[in-house]
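Lecture notes, unit on protein representations.

Consider one protein chain, 142 amino acids long.
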Amino acid sequence: MTVLVVDASVWVSAADATDAFSEPSRTFLSRVARRALPIALPDLAELEFACALARRLGDAERGKDLAAQMLRSPLIAVHSLDASLLRRAVEVGTRKLLRAGDAVYAAVAELTGGEVVSWDRELIQRAGAVTPREWTEEQAPQ
């Protein structure tokens, strides 16, 4: 069973009904939940989710609450950004020319043998991520 490393862009889009990618993000997350697929995230994800949602919604408490709610899923395994993961992220990020946060998600994917799912163009082009829409279409018969 493939582990999914779901980038913050997907979670934030799913939480904001006005986002152009909200519907495919929600469809993707629903399918993942129905199939009880494992999700691996760096502990940095909570910071990313909370800040992005607070900015988008203009509400700090709502951003923190939504981030905490997302991370309560029993499907999610959180990986601490310890020295080992940091070294891996530096290696992956410099090799693939990624931004720091994206390098951490890519490193978690390498560590777990997972697949990155993201709307971020650089993660798609440089790290082989797939969009939620692509993943859902690939999984359609299942």
